[in-house]
Specification:
Chain lengths: ~100, ~550
């Protein structure tokens, strides 16, 4: 069964965010809430989509949880999680990110 | 070059104030994203994978040093210290914050630049031959006409919500460096009985359904240009398909209706529109032309140039590849390569931008150009200044002697930045360039256009590359398809697909096999890759490309 995380881009910063268990937008995938139940994930997505003044382009992404923390299953999400491969910019350059 | 008048300045200030208010309303929650998105797109603001992206137009690729310095300033003050020059003579900033963008636009406005209509379903930045106004092979400078089109198309009330985007390119030379046959409208300045006019090409484009444009008018008198353009766009705006975005571009309209029917409709529309153009556009054009008068070229001797060529092999190599013939005696057109081996094609740091601005001011009559091949041009440099110019460029990492060679690769941002991409482009370009540099074969290979796109939208022009590479997502893995024999010039052709694609780790060796196949197949040193391909066809290249696979399969 596939696991899912809710993701989007922040309205002001434009960077990648994930929805946390406490219903906040967080910058790190490991802090995201992982949905094991597809129906619950869909419901949470509908609620997140309403938060139009905080984020843009909300959607569900698949993750694997084999290592205990959520990890992208698609390379596009891996790039969103880290940043571009030609320059050390984006999330990979941030050592600590507060919400 | 064109200087904004009071009207232009006031228009831009108003427009920027409008957008500032729109951003404020979005941030305050008074506009939804659905409401805001078309507004931000019309001002060049995208939301990409990691951040917003601001795309700034460089109309017909022309900049002065003050404008180039402003581009550097934007990258340092509001971005991460670099900008990315694109295949449509724009510059993109990859990391702006939404709330900063109005300030960026104001800073651009101060030097007569903007981001209007660099996105959205509008007439986009008008592109031109990057050697315009300087090339020895030019009939006339296409930039005054391009500026006229910019003014006509900017905020044109009829053309703000079209079926899809619309791109126009213009060249004043027989040697097409503006890819006119792959644009919605391509204009080639031509002469008939001593009168200048245009060959008008319509319905070209790359992307999902690549098409070479068709000639709709063999000779359009110069004075008829704007009403004729308006007729074409108007006809398409009415009958272009809005039911399916993949069939909305004019290339599909031309394909579905046929060029003869489109010509008939355009002629009928033109007859209606023409009387409304009272000649004011031609008066305006005369004023614009005066602003594009050639600089006062100096007539001093070439002291030092030939001596330096004789004594400095690095300078000789650079001047062999990076110079083009200038119309003025003693002058050369200098292409500055933004393709140092291993660098990101089209990227320039703020420091490099400032240096190029300084050099343009010192040696180049204050002019710079951006090419669709993602390099920077100093169009007017006297040959006696070339040794000093080369030294300054080389010291800044801008002296790579590879224009037109295998490492002078076009690459779109791909999945490293772009939300539409299906695979990465940049690392493939970096690795190919590093490989040919390691092998030291690119000067032996000669002219070779490698063009890489990270999705079927083809911003990297892969269909018209001698070697085209298209990155796709195949079952969650990056996969790269190769096309061969494409041509972006006046003899434009779409490349032919070779067969199955290659994995990320396989594509660079695959391209290397093609290069060595060419060296084996060519008749002699002067037969180019494209000429060889046209002579021998796809088969021998295909055999070289898939030899490993075939050998492996036979085991």
């Amino acid at each position: 069964m596939s696991h899912q995380v809710i993701t989007a881009n922040a309205l002001l910063e434009g960077d990648v965010v994930y929805l946390s268990k406490t219903n906040h937008w967080v910058r790190r995938l490991e802090d995201a809430e992982v949905f094991a139940d597809a129906e619950l994930a869909k419901l949470a997505l509908e609620l997140a989509e309403v938060r139009d003044s905080e984020v843009v382009g909300v959607y569900l992404m698949n993750v694997s949880v084999e290592t205990g923390t959520p990890a992208p299953t698609h390379f596009r999400e891996a790039f969103r999680q880290t940043g571009p491969s030609n320059r050390f910019h984006g999330k990979q350059e941030q050592t600590h990110v507060s919400v | 070059m064109y200087q904004y008048n009071d009207f232009d300045t006031a228009f831009l200030a108003d427009r920027n104030a409008q957008f500032r208010a729109q951003v404020a309303r979005r941030v305050a929650g008074e506009l939804t994203e659905d409401e805001f998105k078309p507004l931000r797109l019309m001002n060049g603001v995208y939301l990409q994978l990691h951040a917003y992206m601001l795309r700034v137009a460089i109309p017909y690729g022309t900049l002065n040093s003050a404008q180039m310095r402003a581009l550097a300033l934007l990258s340092e003050k509001w971005d991460k210290g670099y900008g990315h020059f694109t295949t449509r003579q724009n510059i993109q900033y990859n990391w702006p914050k939404l709330a900063d963008i109005p300030d960026m636009l104001d800073a651009l406005g101060e030097v007569g630049l903007h981001a209007i209509q660099t996105s959205g379903n509008t007439i986009r930045n008008v592109t031109a031959d990057h050697f315009a106004g300087a090339a020895a092979d030019e009939l006339a400078d296409p930039r005054p006409v391009a500026e006229l089109i910019r003014q006509w198309s900017t905020d044109h009330p009829e053309f703000q919500f079209m079926p899809r985007k619309f791109k126009i390119a213009i060249t004043g030379s027989e040697n097409d460096r503006a890819v006119t046959r792959a644009h919605d409208i391509g204009l080639r300045m031509v002469s008939r009985d001593g009168e200048h006019g245009f060959e008008v090409i319509v319905g070209g484009g790359l992307g999902r359904t690549p098409m070479i444009g068709k000639v709709i008018s063999e000779f359009l008198p110069k004075a008829d240009l704007l009403p004729y353009l308006e007729a074409i766009v108007s006809v398409w705006n009415q009958i272009g398909r809005r039911d399916n975005k993949y069939k909305a571009r004019i290339k599909i309209t031309v394909h579905e209706h046929g060029i003869d029917e489109i010509r008939r409709l355009v002629d009928a529309r033109f007859a209606q529109i023409k009387p409304k153009f009272t000649g004011i556009d031609q008066t305006l054009l005369t004023d614009i032309e005066a602003q594009f008068a050639a600089p006062a070229f100096k007539t001093t001797g070439l002291s030092g140039y030939e001596t330096e060529r004789a004594n400095n092999p690095a300078f000789r190599s650079w001047s062999d590849t990076n110079l083009a013939a200038h119309k003025a005696e003693g002058y050369a057109i200098v292409s500055i390569s933004l393709k140092a081996h291993g660098a990101t094609p089209g990227d320039a740091t703020a420091t490099q931008m400032r240096l190029m601005a300084d050099l343009a001011e010192r040696y180049g009559h204050d002019e710079l150009r951006i090419s669709h091949e993602q390099n920077v041009i100093l169009p007017h440099v006297h040959k006696s200044d070339l040794p000093a110019l080369y030294t300054a460029l080389r010291d800044a990492g801008l002296g790579t002697a590879n224009i037109g060679l295998a490492s002078d690769i076009i690459a779109c941002p791909g999945m490293d930045y772009c939300a539409l991409a299906t695979a990465r482009s940049i690392p493939i370009a970096q690795q190919i360039a590093e490989r040919v540099d390691d092998l030291k074969i690119e000067h032996d290979l000669g002219e070779l256009k490698i063009k890489i796109s990270g999705c079927i939208n083809a911003c990297g022009h892969h269909h018209v590359g001698h070697i085209g590479i298209l990155g796709l997502d195949r079952a969650g893995v990056e996969n790269y398809q190769i096309t061969l024999g494409g041509d972006h010039t006046e003899t434009a052709m779409l490349g032919a697909r070779t067969g199955r694609g290659f994995a990320y780790g396989e594509i660079v060796p695959a391209v290397e096999r093609l290069m060595f196949a060419y060296l084996e197949l060519r008749l002699n040193d002067s037969e180019s890759f494209l000429e060889t391909y046209r002579r021998v066809g796809l088969s021998p290249f295909k055999a070289a490309l898939y030899q490993e696979v075939s050998a492996h399969a036979a085991e």
